[in-house]
Q: What sequence folds into this?
DNA sequence: TATGAATGAGCATTCATTCAT
DNA sequence: GATGAATGAATGCTCATTCAT
């Protein structure tokens, strides 16, 4: 029933679902098998060990799922920056964060499992992180050239924003607080662009432009 | 050799160390025993099950370790705000973040294990999170009354800053990048207080004071 | 090799054998596994804990083995009573006691283990005991109506006979005395029917009929 | 507090109590220690192993407790027989059975543990059983010579009575039925002396005297 | 190819026993 | 003598993995 490629895919999907819910060690292979309606042996037909299955899950997450959620088609970011349309940029960002929040499983597995598998961490993180950083730093630099962003270390600038957004997503997904992602994002973007300091503080601080 | 309270404490310390390194499931009870130089049976004398040991570890982390790293004696934060001394406040913050970064094990265990233990999450998170939030929101509100901070939802304001700092700590501790915590914090604080937007952007945006 | 039902049955049979020989606590799960030629894990495939295996053993003993040894098809006892054939009745009894004596393991486990498991005792004893009592008291009452037995509390009457027989079976099976079950039964039945008192004693005692 | 002999005795008493309640394997040495208010190590000061403690318990049961419950001062039984007083004999028996029923722990331990310890069984059973048998068979033979009892194999005669009484005691102590020991004994003795068969049956059976 | 019964190494847990104080 | 903290061999139980069908 269904060809073997489809079976393989169903196994991966069940593994993602359960690894996210219960962790790698907390998930039994028989649970994965039952979840996708195959026999335990079938899982091992496609993935010789459970660790091999984890590797495939992480590979899919890093090469397909997360890029699909985060990365943009070439030039789209540039176009957005070039458009000088703040509202369009915000809408774009909101849609992206919303999708990420709704597909948090992939991130959860990544964050949890990479900690304990130095080799996988090196193998895959070296692929994903630079790609994302390149993209968002590219965005920041483009904005900077356009005169939107201050001349700050782009890695820190970008990481800080991601951190603020990430904390909101965790607030929603881990602490299960009932947040309106879009409304929260509005405030986060405001803080990010304008800071929390009053004019007085800002005057006493770093001069923004010149 | 040594009284039983000391033995108990040694077991907890080894458990914290190893749970942080290898995760709960990845740590064998005999490893904990060997790490602190007792027999395996001794571990079970004090903690009837491995899960019970985890509960005690989490309890210690939440009731002692993290409060010791984060919370301040009554009034100290107020004093800092009242002093109108930005440098002192920064120094205070740097010292705090540095300590947290240096004692990251506790946070790692908390973040990793609470995900899979809904009951423990409810039991303990309800203690820790409100305490920290109260403290930092108190700080933000105090600063706001002093005219330092804008009138923004303090939960989001504070969470965003913690998120930015947190991401830096992860950058250092999980990705093992070689960061100068103090220098990074300088930039993060700058971003937080002043935003990343240029004057032009800010002029087009929300009016800060009025 | 053999289907799973057969494996389950082999495990139960080995458990009965070994629990009878060495007691529940005295029997290791690996011994049961080896005795029936499976791996230790296989035992736990079918019976999630050793206690669960004991419950199944007791259940089988109570619902199948002992009823198979003791209970009679409907009406057979009545027929025997109606036949007025003392020799046939004796032969029937001898055959029954012999089978019980030869299959004493089941009784041994029952007697030994139920003592320590109040819940199992209630669960199962409430099934077995009333069934047996009903059968034998039915037999006694039928014989009484036929004029064979005196008008004595049937519970005590029956229990006394069972006690006498039981003691003989224990004498043989626990003390390992080399007894001829049939010959012993002859004497026990004689005592039971006629008492041990001489005519003089009986004359001084309860008048039998009148 | 208390001399060492008394401590030893308290340990034995606790062991008897708990072995009867939960079995030898089901009783932990620390439970025995707590039950009699000493440290676990103290138990091992007096009895080098748990098995050694069991041996001492069984020894006490066989050499002291059960003889104290069962055996009679020399000649007392003879006197009772010689007195030709059925009521006195019955009263004597009732008192004895009642005491046995009330002190059933000792028997429980004996019955349960001897099964699994062939060496102990041989060592001690060889002492107790012949003593009891000798006494009761002596009683039966004395009664036979006095013309009270029929000329039946005294071992079987006596064992049958003990079996009937024993079953009543089990009925009370194991099945927890609420029985009046004395009233039950009346009926059992009646059955034992007179049989359950009617005159017709007895006439058709073995001639009692001749 | 798919199955699921069977496997057994690995691990948590128990508890009689030891021994320094 | 008495204590009770510490021990570690013994054992119940788990679960990834194998393989005959």
A:
């Amino acid at each position: 029933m269904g060809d073997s490629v489809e079976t393989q895919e169903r196994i991966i999907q069940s593994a993602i679902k359960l690894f996210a819910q219960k962790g790698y060690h907390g998930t039994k292979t028989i649970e994965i098998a039952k979840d996708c309606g195959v026999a335990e042996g079938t899982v091992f037909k496609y993935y010789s060990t459970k660790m091999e299955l984890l590797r495939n899950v992480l590979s899919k997450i890093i090469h397909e799922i997360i890029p699909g959620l985060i990365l943009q088609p070439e030039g789209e970011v540039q176009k957005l920056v070039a458009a000088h349309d703040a509202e369009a940029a915000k809408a774009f960002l909101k849609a992206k964060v919303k999708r990420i929040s709704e597909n948090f499983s992939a991130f959860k597995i990544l964050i949890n499992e990479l900690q304990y598998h130095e080799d996988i961490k090196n193998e895959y993180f070296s692929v994903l992180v630079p790609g994302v950083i390149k993209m968002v730093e590219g965005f920041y630099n483009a904005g900077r050239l356009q005169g939107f962003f201050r001349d700050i270390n782009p890695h820190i600038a970008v990481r800080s924003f991601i951190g603020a957004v990430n904390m909101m997503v965790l607030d929603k997904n881990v602490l299960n607080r009932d947040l309106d992602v879009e409304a929260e994002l509005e405030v986060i973007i405001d803080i990010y662009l304008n800071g929390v300091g009053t004019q007085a503080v800002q005057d006493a601080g770093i001069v923004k432009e010149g």
Residues 206-210 of chain D have pLDDT under 50 and may be disordered. DSSP finds eleven helices and no strands in chain D. The two ends of chain D are 69 Å apart (CA to CA).
